[in-house]
Amino acid sequence: MAERSFAAEVEKLRVGAGAEFAGEGILAVTKALLQSGVSYVGGYQGAPISHLMDVLGDAHEILEELGIHFENSASEATAAAMLAASVHYPLRGAVTFKSTVGTNVASDALANLSSGGVTGGALIIVGEDYGEGSSIMQERSHAFAMKSQIWLMDPRPNLTAIVDSVDLGFRLSEASNTPVMLELRLRSCHIHGKFIAKDNVRPSFTLKDAIENPRQDPARVVLPPASFAHEQEKLNVRWPAAVKFIKDNKINEVINDGAQDFGIILQGGLYNTVIRALQLLGLSDVYGNSKIPLYILNVTYPIIDDEVIEFAKSKRAVLLVEEGQPDYIEQNLHAVLRRADVPTKLFGKEMLPPAGEYTPAHVIKGITEFIKKYGPQLLDQNALPAVVRPSGDKPTSLETRIAPEKVHGRPPSFCTGCPERPIFTALKLAERETGKHHISADIGCHLFSILPPFNIGATTMGYGLGSAGASAFQSIETDKQVISFMGDGGFWHNGLTSGIGNAVFNQSDGLTVIVDNAYSAATGGQDILSSQADNELRSTKHPIEAAVRGIGVKWVKTITNTYKVSEMRETFKSALTGNVKGPKIIVAQSECTLNRMRREKPAMAKKIKEGKRVVKERFGIDPDTCTGDHSCIRINGCPSLTIAPNPDPMRKDPVATILNTCVGCGLCGEAAHAAVLCPSFYRTEVITNPSIWDKAKLSIRSAVIGFLQNGIERRLVGIQPNA
Amino acid sequence: MLNQSRPITMAVLAMGGEGGGVLADWCIDIAEHSGYWAQTTSVPGVAQRTGATIYYLEFFADDQSNKEPILSTMPTPGEVDIVIASELMEAGRAVFRGFVTPETTTFIASTNRVYSMAEKTAMGDGRVSSEELLSACEAAAKKFISGDFAEVADKSGTVISASLFGALAGSGALPFSKDQFTSAIERSGVGVKNSLIAFEKSFEIAQNSLKPKPNPVSISIGAKPADAPTANLGLTPAQELEILNNPNGAVGSKLQDLASRIKSDYPSAVTLMTISGIKRTADYQDAAYAKVYLDRLEAVKECDSVFGDGTYRTLNEVARYTALWMTYEDTIRVADLKTRRTRFNRVNDEARVGDNQIMQVREFLHPMAEEIADTLPTFLGGWLIKTKPVTNFINKLTINGMRLHTTSLHGYFLLYILARLKFIRRRSLRFNLEQERIDQWLTKILAVMPENYDLAYEIAESANVIKGYGDTHKNGWRNFTSLMSEVDKLRESKDSNAATRISKLRSAALSDETGEKLRALL
Asked: With the C-alpha atoms ordered B387, B388, B390, B395, is the resulting torsion angle positive or negative?
């Protein structure tokens, strides 16, 4: 089960025609899929589209009613390959993943799919993880659309527009026998808004129909000579069909053409930002009534040449607002205008930043520069927004008021009580004895190890590729081994074969640590093959150790309690210093705390309510024995382990302290022991609803200890003034 | 003519897991129940795992035109009406990113600190000044509302989103009534009662901070020496003044003579520090040890009065570090502190032990052979350290550490007896070693002061690099000796920048554990 329950959202999916649906962008897409008569949905979780998967996972009853098959694909490649169902049959199918990373993985299947073409609508919903909040390399899905000829829709960040484009996307796909990619930016996925719903639709041609009436047509398979025919068909048949559909349905919008002899062309996804920029410049109202002609590309691939020429030819200049690089659309527009001999000036990346997210500030600056050049009379110099006010004018608004070094970066890190942190504590301690190793990291929460305080991990080459990323480091000239990390998510995604199988086959020496926290944790706690939870829809509890042994690894150690730092450290040492050749695997297994707490907190509250004896543990630090050196923090980094002003008036440095958010995972104590730190750590056990035996012990202890403490206090008389 | 009406814009800067999303959802809920178009976006992603994250909201009054307004998904610097920050450095970030501007922004900031990793991992004090952050926030905002909303939430048994929501209501920055705010909490249906308590308290804080501030009335409680604040002991001015006027009143009967000596012989600039020093050393050992402490300061005092700049800052630091050094943390001290009633009460409070609850405490101790040797009489300790089979045997016994149940009888007895070993401390290996080291350090200060006062001050301050236990302490001592040999070199070469150099090396020694930065500079 995922980190968040979507029981309430699932009910929303049932609303019928005319009802208002209010919610998150990605939920709107989910509803739109049900409205469009989709037959099957697959995907791989990852921000920002995890919620789409999670909601559908919780909505299995509705899906069954509508005859929809939904699965949690093993990888994005699996998801994309699923679309093969739409090749021969009029089945609508959708898959979703994080892009561009997911699209990278899916691209083999996507290329095959788009070569042969589709009969039923095939929709690829990509969560474009670009700009602020992104966790991946900054690239564009646009490139994949171009290389495989998949149409790319980039709707306005508005629920109605997004929902409409799901429907349009399926129809466009069917009209042109081409898969369609629906690009949803990070913020569009998490946007809250509303739209008017339609009834859910059961597909007229079902999976049952397809399964019972199989079709075959070698012309749709990528094998010569069909593959050569595909290429011709793409250009000569499917492209014109798509252009016609896009024009007929007016998917791209033209606003207020003719109002000026210059205009702006923009990606649909940037519409709200451009309108806000124009509004702040006094050139639009809040409803988007722009004084400047706009041509909005709700489909960014293919570019509709006629529409571009029509918009541009009556103008002296147009500004293209295209986010990201390379500037594919800008290059495309230049070619279109050049071929048509249209002399209109085209501006793009020379007025807007060549790379990076297009924030309102950047867009305002770019548009201001453009308007200053072509319609300066339209700008009221006295009412410009702060970001483009000449410096010196109203200097109070945006001057620097705080030095950058005062505002430290606050990257994500391991949660309080995270079972992965002690793995890195143990490795750091092991390295004190074995020396430093080259460490190859992977994708997942465990990648936070590369940041302080651990600073562990040199590279990451992609999901599940931690072990593969270390494969070059084989040398008969040294006994030193390299270490690689891999999460359980990445392991099942591909790491079992790309990393472990590869190491077995090539007889590679080295240690791979598989972090098994029982979930695909970083993407929101979804279940995977090795999850420990019972899941009525999925088959779980397939141990990683069995898989690893099955593929041929001999040296495998499973640690079932990662918080035991000394044991972890010793296991590291034995793997790194032993004489065993070949791949060595440590499966470091402890449940993700975020998910464990979600389950255990309510259970504990219930027990307390029922009057049962409950022990709650947490850690503390004695401030009077803490010397303020913070060694404990440097090998731990827990959010609950922090600093506080020193209560000792003579000491200047802050003491280490443990906040009330402590979940009592035990790492502090284990680390203090393993690293021989200091005697300041203690664990408190608060017993709620204590037994009679607890109470009896307490009264004896209190009497004896109290007596001895009176003695201690007597001996200290004469130091402090009398109260 | 274009319709000029603009949406209300609001940014919430929070950290993953703080409930920023809940706060945003409440705001959307009020707005949609009040005939507003409302939009929220966020970019949580992996930032959900404790990282900094922003929620951005816009509200627009429905003008019955049946047209949907185009709302932005991202804040524009200079155009944000309301900014809420759940923590002081995040507030600083809001200012840094230009979201808070004096012409536009109502700025609600919680003054609590969640320290950054860099602040936490420093060997010494790596904290960014809260005052600096606060004054930047104040200067940047049109209206500034601040308070420890995390504490309010904590005391009300809820999370910070509830108290920030109260402050937002109290700020009057949104066109909704208090009832509309509280109804949103009620509609959400989770933890309503506690959320409402936090809401009310924060509402009040916000309303109070918007009232015009009365001109500050200066409260004078008598003259205070200009150089007194150097002690910086965290006391209130009134408390400080009381000790300065009557040092004898600050100590008990056993320390009266020493307090009188401080009053008559010592400059008032160091009164607070020396009074603390005699109390600390007496608490550690006995009144006689406190006398040793004060005697140690005597020569430094004389020297500082001749060669100093009148502030007695070197003497003050010597008074600080001599006391800390003399009360080094040995097993006896640790056992002593852990068995006291005050400690039991503190732990009880911290664990929030309520009715029908019992608390137990377990210590995580890891005595090594060296620490045991430290507390033994010098000859015995020395023998133990040199006799490898014995040390190995002890270390093998203790390698996995001890978990001592202090609230049980046997656990308490063990620590209690250990604490009673005070009487053998004066003959112990470590005691004699530390006394020797302290005297060497003091001798150096005295030797340097006539030739270079600033350098003497730096030598005094250098004692701060020795801290911690076990390996940390060893590394600290190694860094300290490196600093001292550098001092010797600088003295020989009569370097005029010696003090600055040592000051730099001192911070380097505190910037990492291994002494790498220090070695690089050396």
From this structure: positive
* Each residue's pLDDT tens digit, B188-200: 888 999 999 999 9
d(CA A74, CA A489): 9
| Residues A244 and A313 placed together within one structural domain of the fold | no
Q: In which domain, by residue range, is A58 found?
A: 19-248
Q: Which has the minimum average pLDDT: A166-170, B39-43, B139-143, B154-158? A: B39-43
Nearest to A359 by CA among B140, B98, B13, B81: B98
- Best of B87, B120, B194, B254 to disrupt the A interface (most A CBs within 10 Å) is B120
Q: Catalogue all structural domains in chain B, each as residue range(s) with its CATH number.
A: 8-210 (3.40.920.10), 229-327 (no CATH)
Does B514 reach chain A within 8 Å, measured CB to CB? no
Other CB atoms within a 10 A radius of the CB of residue B226 amount to 10
Nearest partner of B41 among B20, B17, B62, B15, judged by Cα: B20
Residue A664 in contact with partner chain B when CB distance is under 8 A = no
Phi, psi at B199, each rounded to 5°: -60, -50
For residue A396, pLDDT over 70 is answered with: no
User: Backbone phi, then psi, for B44, in 5-degree steps?
Assistant: -65, -55
User: Torsions phi, psi of A24, nearest 5?
Assistant: -80, 150
Closest residue by Cα to residue A36 from A172, A127, A151: A172
Compute the average pLDDT of residues B370-398: 85
pLDDT of residue B3: 72
> Does any domain span residue A577?
yes
Which pLDDT value is given to residue B48?
Answer: 64
A587 and A662 fall within a common domain: no
Q: Which residues of B touch A280 (CB under 8 A)?
A: 76, 79
The 10s digit of each residue's pLDDT in B327-379 is: 999 999 999 999 999 999 999 999 989 888 999 999 999 888 888 888 888 88
pLDDT of residue A393: 58
Banded model confidence at residue B218, pLDDT cuts 50, 70, 90 = very low
B333 to chain A: closest CA residue: A625
Residue B321, Cα to own-chain centre: how many angstroms?
19
End-to-end CA distance of chain B: 71
Q: Do A342 and A361 belong to one domain?
A: yes
Q: Are residues A228 and A308 in the same domain?
A: no
Tell me: do A347 and A467 sit in the same domain. Answer: no
Q: Beta strands A483-487 and A510-516: pairing type?
A: parallel
Mean pLDDT of the region A322-332: 98
Beta bridge pairs of residue B53: B14
Task: Using the 3D structure, point to which of A205, A233, A248 is the last residue of a domain.
Answer: A248
Q: Determine whether the interchain pair B46/A288 forms a contact, defined as Cβ–Cβ distance below 8 Å.
A: no
Is there a domain that residue A410 lies in?
no
Give a yes or no: residue A191 inside a domain: yes
pLDDT at B287: 96
For A130, the token pair is 């670009």
Q: Name the A residues in 474-493 with CB < 8 Å from any B CB.
A: none
Q: Which tens digits make up the pLDDT trace of A563-597?
A: 999 999 999 999 999 888 899 999 999 999 989 99
Whether residues A227 and A259 fall in one domain = no
The count of domains in chain A is 4
The model's pLDDT over A534-560, given as tens digits with 9 standing for 90+, comes to 998 999 999 999 999 999 999 999 999
Mean pLDDT of A683-703: 95
Instruction: Please name which of A485, A469, A361, A370 lies closest in space to residue A424, comparing C-alpha atoms.
Output: A485
Say which CATH number the domain at A555 has. Answer: 3.40.50.970
Q: What is the CATH number of the domain that holds A329?
A: 3.40.50.920
pLDDT level of residue B217 (50, 70, 90 thresholds): very low
- What ipTM did this prediction achieve? 0.94
Q: Measured in whole angstroms, how far is the alpha carbon of residue A155 from the centre of its chain? A: 21
Is residue A13 domain-resident?
A: no
Query: What 3-state class would DSSP assign to B38?
Result: strand
Same domain, A440 and A535: yes
Same domain, A371 and A463: no
